[in-house]
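In response to reviewer comment 3 from the previous cycle, which asked for concrete evidence that the modeling workflow produces usable outputs, we include below a single protein chain processed end to end. The sequence was submitted unchanged, and the resulting structure tokens are shown without manual editing.
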Amino acid sequence: MRRAAIVGTGAIATSHAEALRAEGERIELVAVVDVDEQRAAEFAKEWGVPRVYPRLATLLDVEDVDVVHICTPPRAHVPLALECLAANVNVLVEKPPALSLSEIDTLIAAERASTGRVATVFQHRFGPAAIRLRRMVSQGVFGRSLVAKCDTLWYRDDAYFDVPWRGSWDSEGGGPTMGHGIHQFDLLLSVLGPWQEIRGLAARQARHVATEDVSMALVTFADGTVASVVNSLLSPRETSELRFDFERATVEVEHLYGYTDAHWTVTPAPGQDEVVDLWREERSEVASGHGCQLAAFLDALDSRETPPVTLADTRDTMEFIAALYASAFTGTAVKAGELGPDSPFYATMEGIGAPWANAR
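The workflow returned the following structure tokens.
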């Protein structure tokens, strides 16, 4: 049986604990780490975890673990992942995995020197419908991809940002582009492949934060697909939507924080009804979520393969975010591969600074 530990026992840690428990005898949650001793103790009691530690370094010195789940606020993700890699321990890190492209590249370099591997939690990639969609796209079932849209329209009020680490570039790395819409457009990227150019917009419309509270992007993909992406925390009717218009069908999903097959629809182009039949050949009631990704993670470890989502995959999504901010703050289109170490948007997503920075 594999052994796991969770670092950070806030709200998202519950999803990880549930996923670990669902795997039964494949893996055991043996320890938790949190700077808040009382919260850690309460979490450990609720989930039957035998040991609690105040620091990851202490746990790594004492415990023999196969994987550490990093569930802390974003600023701590990379330092904690580096500790795990130095100890040759695998990592499953919550989004956003890092605060910048520079930090991602630091992780990539550290992973090369370690037997441990880092996987990012992008759980929507692992729902059965998304897996089916990617396979059918690669098989050419839907024909050429033409148009897409990706909307994360959520609502977070002022009280949400009372938590000290929320709404700042230093602690979160960005606003809804980094912390909320990332799940939906990561799924978009996993289906459509490499993006080529972004024209972005970001604004601070209503929340008293340093970051944006809404962003938008017009994106051209390498295969010629054109797409729009919207990330908002100002939308009272909350929804998460993706739409793919292919030559032979429109494929859509509308959900909020997770989907099943029931959330997806396939609308055939005239004379293309067979694509719906092919889609419906497989049925699943399984919801996208941490459980699906953890199962895939453990399958990879069992077969001695690199667990998904790799740091290379993650870097593509992080570069998309950096390019959106760079385009929004400079007023220019940004192409894939442009943001190297010489760019101000390489070291921080804020880059040259948000236009509203001096208006605070």
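The longest strand covers residues 234-246. We consider this sufficient to address the reviewer's concern, and the full set will be provided in the supplementary archive.
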